[in-house]
Amino acid sequence: MSAANTTAAPELSLKERWMPDRVTRRVRALAWWVFATQVLIIATGGAVRLTGSGLGCDTWPKCTADSFVNNPEMGIHSYIEFGNRTLTILLEVVAILALLAVWRFRQQRPDLFWLTVVPTLSVLVQAVVGGIVVWSGLNPYLVGLHFFASLVLVVLAALLVLRVYTGPGPRRLVASAPLLQMAWLATIFGFVVVALGILTTGSGPHAGDGGALRNGLDSETIQTVHVVAAYGTLLFTLMTLFLARRERAYSVSRWAGWTIVVILAQIIVGIVQARLSLPPVLVGLHMVLACLLAAGVFLALVETRQPSRGSQLR
Is residue 11 part of a domain? Predict the structure, then answer.
């Protein structure tokens, strides 16, 4: 046996492990972590609102006028609100690690670079927006904007996960005009239904604090429009799935099928929560599903374009 065969391969340095020159298992794992933490912050943010803990820390950036952290005398609401604030540290750490992981091949994969830059910078921006929400006494429109921004970050994190499994380079349209139109309509309706859901919640009982104002909209009317938009999203997504399967656009059909499952779950949860007078657990589940719905319709639209032939998976 030759010396070349008996010599063990050199271990990767710390820099090579955390800053590889291509997409590796570590890069893919970090992309999933970015996605998971973005969904998690929405779930915990929902818990803050649905437990009436929105003003558990009554100022920002401090929790009280005298302390950055809560104290036992402030009660359970302060722990819930402070815990949600603390979670942003985890988001920032994960985002920075993901950014470092793609740094060395950022020129070859600018899509991955920018999709990791956004969450890295957005944590601070979202923290400031959250502070403004607290200063406003939980203005329902600012609360809704805060949630919608978080939803967009979930969608971009989902795109990051998708892109670490696909090749670089230019993309070409692989869908017919009718399929592309249906995918666009499904995406537009998907985001509209989320926006209407935010307005519906802003008119309902879950203000985040007993003294917070509501948006003044008629709950029954806005809820009806929200439901109509939800069924419109389902219809256009079903049409997207049908056309994608007929054209053998399997990537599009996969995401359209996933979205249909989420929409059906949303509809069931929405009906049940309405009949049970909006229990917090179901409202929170509805919020998380809304993020997955938006991600699903968006990825179905994205997949109407595929890497041009000759692109290499990196």
Answer: no
